[in-house]
Amino acid sequence: MTSYPDLHLLIGGEQLGLDGRESEEVIDPATGETIGKLPHATPDDLDRALDCAEKGFREWRDTSADKRAAILNKAAGLIKERAGDIAQALTREQGKPLAEAKGETMYAAMLLEFYAGECKRIYGRTMVRPEGSRVEVQYHPVGPVAGFAPWNFPSLNVMRKIGGALAAGCSTIVKPSEETPAAGIALVQALIDAGVPGDAVQCVFGVPDHVSRHLLGSPIIRKLTFTGSTAVGKHLAKLAAEDLKITTMELGGHGPVLVFKDADIDGALDTMAGAKFRNAGQVCVSPTRFLVEEDVFEKFRDGFVERAEKVKVGNGLEDGTQMGPMANSRGLDNMEKLIGNATEKGGKLLTGGERIGNQGFFHQPSVLAEVPTDADIMNDEPFGPVAILNPMSGEDAMIEEANRLPYGLAAYAWTEDPARRRRLAARVEAGMLGINTAGVSAADAPFGGVKWSGYGSEDGREGVMACMVPKTVHEG
Predict the structure, then answer these.
(1) Residue 47 CA to chain centroid, in angstroms?
(2) Which of 118, 250, 381, 458 does the annotation list as catalytic?
(3) Which end of the chain has fewer CB atoms within 10 angstroms, the N or the C?
């Protein structure tokens, strides 16, 4: 078994450990064993982090775009060099297969490289005015940013919280999930090692509500960025509203997949079954509600079940593992509850539906079919390795069902009809739509949702501009 790193806070560039601090255990979801102890920031620690962020903002804001870009590129290089070790720790604390953990970490480095380039692409504009007058629009960093990241992508979500902010010239305080802390610590350390001032990028942990209230209660923090559940996002948005802080919210989803009879069915099955069980379904953009035209429903259903039953489940550190454990016992309990309710309502359990073994948090890849819309799983994000397959009468009914829920993060469609693709792009309510692909994320493209799935974007140019405020300068 691979070693797991010592855990600490990073405040003002200093590593702060367990001495004099409360702590919590970090659990390996593949074994249920404790692998580390994580210190919690004290109120004094958080006050110090805020003071450092204020100081760090002044220094980092005044650092030239060329120098910021060079430092961020250097940090990306360090993350790539350390990706193997970061991935090992990530798999130990989160459970996903090692190849996925390394791919995620490399993606975080690629995102930072893109943001480094954006340092030099922050453009204003000059208005046409009569001779002797001038109007110029400038963009300035908003100020210190607080970022709260979840446990499902411990590298990528942390980078999404801090990369765009640093490119914009903001200082940052990030709180990765206490369940998956090591990967986030490693990314912040790489940034510091590359030359980002320790005051400008900091990492804290603690009871989430205590940390969020403390940081958001300070006027030093000028922006909040959060990825997580809709319920928690609404709570944090209310806290941020007290001081009119800018917010970016990437919240829950319930990804619909519209499969039309003219689609490449085998291609759709190969692609979407893999996407469904990636990270044990613990993905904000996971495809979940498969809305399949009646003419091809049986073929799609049988093919999906066949593929689900071939998924190799095991410890993420073992060769050949395609799906690791769920990240915590809460996920297992939620799967049991939702699948049980679906079958009670008349849904058909075609495969899976049960926990695997009595060690760790493993669950079978599961497929439900013909589930009524009043079942809980049709309305609440399952966030686990379960797919719902329902036959549909045609395009209008499929779009209506896709848009029925208050969520709108990612949606997917499979069709060969160019005109239909244009209609779907116009009518499906989602921040991201994948047509004949499961890919809805790219470093240079905005990532975010609509409705209860949040607002604002990370990644792309938008991820940097979300950390800036416009200033109009009028000269007479």
Answers:
(1) 27
(2) 250
(3) C
Residue 344 confidence (pLDDT): 98
User: Residue 246: which residues within 8 A CB-CB, separation 6 or more?
Assistant: 142, 222, 223, 224, 240, 466, 469
**Residue 446: alpha-carbon gap to chain centroid:** 13
255-443 matches 9-251+453-475 in CATH topology:
no
Q: Check if CATH label 3.40.50.2000 holds for domain 255-443.
A: no
250 is catalytic: yes
Pairing of strands 246-250, 172-175: unpaired
pLDDT at 149: 98
CATH, range 9-251+453-475: 3.40.605.10
Of residues 52, 119, 170, 284, which has the active-site annotation? Answer: 284
Long-range contacts of 207-213 (CB under 8 A, 24+ apart): 207/40, 208/148, 208/175, 208/178, 211/41, 211/46, 211/175, 212/146, 212/148, 212/175, 212/236, 212/239, 213/239
Predicted TM-score of the model (pTM): 0.96
Task: Give the pLDDT score at 142.
Answer: 98
> Which parts of 168-322 are beta strand (E)?
172-175, 201-203, 223-227, 246-250, 255-259, 287-293
Percent of the chain with pLDDT over 70: 100
Mean pLDDT (the chain) is 97
